[in-house]
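Cross-check.
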Amino acid sequence: MNLRPDAVVVGAGIVGAACALRLAERGLRVSVLEQAESPAAGSTARSVAGVRAQFATRTNILLSQRSIAEYAALPEAGYCASGYLLLFSAVQWTAHQAALALQRSLGVPVRALSPLEAQRITPFDPEGIAGCSFCPTDGSVDPHGITFAYLRGAARRGAELHTATPLTAVTRSGGVWRLHTPRGTLEAPLLVNAAGAWSGEVAALAGLDVPVIPARRMVFATGPLGRHLGYPMTFDLTSGVYLRSEGERLILGRADVADSGWREGMNWDWLEPTLEAALARFPWLEQATLDRRASWWGYYEVTPDHAPILGRMPGADGWINACGFSGHGVMHAAAVGHVIAQEALGEPASVNIDALRYERFGQAQAGLHDLQL
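Predicted model, tokenized:
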């Protein structure tokens, strides 16, 4: 173990892997610490794996656009441009017009559809739906494949990966961070907090308050349907329920906003509220069966405004946050890797992240709200 790297990345999920690669590319000696037995074992492995550029803020759109472009060029990413179909109520549709205009101005090939046109993509009950949007370059990826590709790239440039290496204490002295682990103590002038749902706890070890908490999410899977229906990610903004094809199955879910904290395992009590909303919008689901063994759960890493925390931590020299993505980590990881490397080296950012910096929590939260899918 290199006990004196230039930078330590805490977390070997997709975001940490992207940061490690881009830092190593710049010639920094990088160590990656992961508490689990293998990389991509936390939220990355349990993601629904969707990627979309249909956001309402410029920063999020650009982070997604650049990430999707990188995934499309990476064979290990398994990028599938299956699209995202969003369904809006009348009030939501009126409010969404500004987002559609912004997306188009940035080159996102999004289309506005009537409910009738949208039903040709995914059948649904149009009751209460006033308008829909569809982007054909949104879709899905293989987060596991991306993470390991990034880590292999970082290793070729000298980065070290240490799994089963939890942090036990973090201190700052003499211009370096001291990271204490059961395998030894590392000293580095730069620490990147990319620990996902554990990022708040990692910060607390250093006496810092980074407002990231875990939120459990259920993903329910149907049994094999005998054929690939080819439905894109379809999200009903009126109820919060989503579904998409996954091979010959469908996966579906709906966020339980009360399910926060370190709760493990499937919450089967949430199945009924999810199915109630799903069947109301997609009544043809009655013909499908549920496969409990194929269903899974994972953590979102949630912040107070459901936006990530990126960039240097005020009052903590050498500490950079790359966490709190609130379900959008896979969507933004590729671009975030570049931005964090630029931040570390004092270079202009390829995407302006000022709206996502920690300092916003002491300011008015204007302009940060976006679709929570």
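The helical segments are 14-25, 58-72, 90-105, 115-118, 143-156, 199-205, 271-281, 329-345. The chain has eight helices and 19 strands. Passed to J.P. for a second look.
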